[in-house]
Structure formats: structure tokens, C-alpha cells
Amino acid sequence: MMTALNTEAKVVACIDASPYAEAVCDYAVWAAIQLQTSLTLLHAIDKAQHTQTPDLSGSLGLGSQEVLLQQLAELDEKQSTLALERGRFILAAARARAEQAGLSAVAEILRPDTLLNSLKSLAPDLRLLVIGKRGASSAEEHGQLGLHVEQLLRTLDKPVLLTQQRFKAPLRIMLAFDGSATAQKSLAMLAASPLCRGLLVHIVLATGRAEDSQVKLDAAAEQLAAAGFTTQTAIIAGEPENVLNQYQQEHHIDLMIMGAYGHSRIRQFILGSTTTAMIRNAKCALLVLR
Description:
The chain is of the alpha/beta class. It folds into two domains: 6-49 and 83-163, Rossmann fold, CATH 3.40.50.620; 172-289, Rossmann fold (3-Layer(aba) Sandwich), CATH 3.40.50. Helix content is 41%, strand content 21%. It is built from nine helices and ten strands. It has helices at 21-35, 47-50, 65-100, 115-122, 147-155, 181-192, 210-226, 240-250, 274-281, and strands spanning 6-14, 37-44, 107-111, 126-132, 160-163, 172-176, 200-206, 230-236, 255-259, 285-289. It has a ten-stranded mixed sheet. Helix 1 crosses helix 3 (65-100), helix 6 (181-192) packs parallel to helix 7 and helix 8 (240-250) packs parallel to helix 9 (274-281). The longest helix has 36 residues, at 65-100. It is elongated and about 80 Å long. The two termini are 33 Å apart. Belongs to the universal stress protein A family. Pfam families: Usp. Residues 10-162, 214-290 form the UspA domain. It comes from Alishewanella longhuensis. This is Universal stress protein.
């Protein structure tokens, strides 16, 4: 049965040739159904990444320079054409997968531009971005983030759902909570959104004074309970990027939720932040809220 969708705000899925593509599509379908909104599949072609032909214009002999430069230009054109054809094939396969899962009116965008520029153009109508933890160019670099992923998280002012290579429909979610203004904003966004409605929420606070922490957790649990969530709270000791991921694995959490980086200019360029470490070490899908 096809699901009718609201097209006012959309879920956008970044689809490429990486091993994450199917999971990205499946998580995007799940999110679009939960949010009752439309799905757009985006494949961006960065010419700088797809063109491997070196610039030899300065080292060519006078007699052969014109012919070879013409051949290089033709090769560039063929590579661009091939990249476009490959992108159309990838998007068509993702669309068929989404429609088979029950979505109607799935849109496709094939854009010859960088991923970041492509997403900036879609930002006004973007409700949730779904992207793999790593893209095609860095899929095998385990323990690291894809270059585009880190750029997006630091510049795009939208919620981002980062996927692993396999889809698992979320049943248990975890909110990384420390009582800060960022965490309170994430709590309010979770309470107001239908994305995770009906799922068990673990509200987990790492470190902090026990008395003060418990008060914060109780208040957070009450806020989610008022929105119809079932909650479970926990205070754990240790470095957040380590103990929160450990808690996730021990309690079989399917989706972790946390606030994004701070908004100061200095913090935007700190690569060793808790947020980045958490994302790098996460063993499940992770929703980063802004």
C-alpha cells in the first residue's frame, strides 16, 4: 500500500555508489513514513572528484600539443557523461527501492555540483537529511568520517541522520543528555517530532554530580512522558564518547540522538570534539540535531 505524503518539507537522502547507499535509502524511507513527508533522492557529481585526467598542457611538445589537448578534452567529456549515466542508474535503483517499500511521489535530483552546494540549495525545504557515515570515496576508512559528512555537520543547520551500512528499523533510541542548552533544545525537538514517537527512549547522562544530574534527567523524562514517550534514565561515569557508545551496545540501542557542535566560530573548527568522537565510534545510526 502506497503512503500519501505531505510535500511541504522533505526528507533528503544522499545516494552514491558506496556500501551505505541501500541503508541510506531504507532509513530515509522509514523517516519519510514516520514524518509523513516527501522523499527526495539526491546524487551530486563533483567534477573535481570524477575527473582524473591530469593537466599536461605545460609539458606537451609543440607538435603534439593541440592534438593531445583535444583528446584530453574528449576524455573529460566522456568521463562526465559516464558519471551522469551512473548517477541516473543509482537514483533509479534507489527510487524503485523506496517505491517498493510503500512510498509514492519519490523525487530524484541529479546535480553536477558539490554535495554541500547541492544541499544548501535544498536547505529551505529540508526537514531531515539522511546520509551514510562515509561516502564512496572513503567507505573503507573504518573509524573515520567521510569528508563531506564532517563538512555537512558543521555547516548545515538541519537535523542529520547518519547511517551504518545496514538498516535496522529503530525500536529503542537513546538521547545523549547533559542538561545543557543544546541538550534541552534536542529534547524539545525529540518531544515535538513524530519521528520516534512510540519508541522507548533511554535518556543517558555521562558524568556530572549525581544529585544535580538526576534532577535534570527526571525533568527530561517528564517532558518526554508528557509527549507520549516511554522513558528510561541512566547516569554513567566516564568520557562521554566512550561510555555512551558502550551503553548503546549493552542496551541494544538502534538509534542514538545528540545535539550538534556549538555555534561559535572557534568550536566549528575543533575536529577533536565530543560530537565528532561520538559519531566516529558509533555502532548504530545516529541522529544529530541542530
